[in-house]
Design a protein that fits this description.
With 250 residues, this protein is α/β, with parallel strands linked by helices. The chain contains six helices and 13 strands. The chain folds into two domains: 201 residues, HUPs (Rossmann fold); 31 residues, no CATH class. A hairpin with a 6-residue loop joins strand 3 and strand 4. Helix 2 packs across helix 5 and helix 3 packs across helix 4.
């Protein structure tokens, strides 16, 4: 089976972003990066699928040259191949443009099942995976917490506001992975050493222009300073009064 995990390099979750001089982008100075949390689940599920059904796993990213670090980590965990679509403009690319570039490349790679994280932890819009499936005309199951795959079909459980929904689908398919689907493995020394010898393919792609543009970025308004309304049981009436008349949550 030809299995692909699509991943994204994102700022670390504790990063404190600053607005760049143009007022439309984030100043990347001093920001550290990591693999998006949910993409770790996608890589793990791709490797587990290979271990169960055979085939090979390719990890694919659209991003900067530095994303080769995250790709090599995926190779160390058990992925067979890694490919990067080098894009200096990756941080400004919208979901539509990203999805169109990835969908075309997935067709060229001959993918049969593609795993994404449920959401990228920088943009948090959960759009690209479903967009790719729509462009390809494939089955798509999002927010998956349990998965059973066979050679030509699958069954998945996904959590919804109304409970756990179970769906059956045909391959090829796009699966977006949620917490609870698996526990990502750590890289062993043997895997790390083997990954150093593997080549990361740099693939060309036809650019797709954005359909939307950021007009302005501004920080959220500063929060009011907190205050102590009292101590112990004696503070309860004052706290209730503040919640009712100031915060207006009661």
């Amino acid at each position: 089976m030809n299995i692909v995990a699509c991943v994204k390099r994102v700022p670390v979750t504790e990063a404190q972003p600053k607005i760049a001089a143009d007022g439309k982008s984030v100043d990347a100075t001093g920001i550290e990066y990591m693999l998006s949390f949910y993409d770790d689940l996608a890589i793990e599920e791709a490797i587990r699928t290979k271990e169960k059904l055979g085939g090979e796993v390719t990890v694919l990213t659209l991003g900067p040259a530095e994303a080769s670090k995250e790709l090599r980590d995926a190779l160390a965990k058990g992925a067979d191949k890694a490919s990067i679509l080098k894009d200096a403009n990756w941080a400004a690319r919208d979901a539509r443009s990203t999805a169109k570039v990835l969908a075309k490349k997935l067709q060229e790679l001959g993918a049969q099942v593609v795993f994404f994280g449920r959401v990228a932890t920088d943009r948090d819009n959960s759009a690209v995976g479903a967009y790719v499936a729509t462009l390809l005309g494939w089955s798509c199951v999002t927010d998956v917490v349990k998965l059973e795959l066979a050679a030509d079909k699958g069954k998945a459980c996904r959590e919804t506001e109304d409970g756990v929904e179970t769906v059956e689908f045909a391959l090829p398919a796009v699966i977006t992975c949620d917490k609870g689907l698996n526990e990502p493995r750590y890289s062993g020394l043997k895997g790390i050493m083997a990954a150093k010898k593997k080549t990361i393919d740099e693939l060309a792609f036809e650019d797709v222009p954005n359909q939307q543009a950021v007009a302005k970025l501004e920080p959220p308004p500063a929060r009011k300073e907190g205050r102590v309304v009292g101590q112990g049981a004696a503070a309860v009436p004052a706290l209730i009064e503040a919640l009712r008349n100031e915060a207006k949550v009661l």
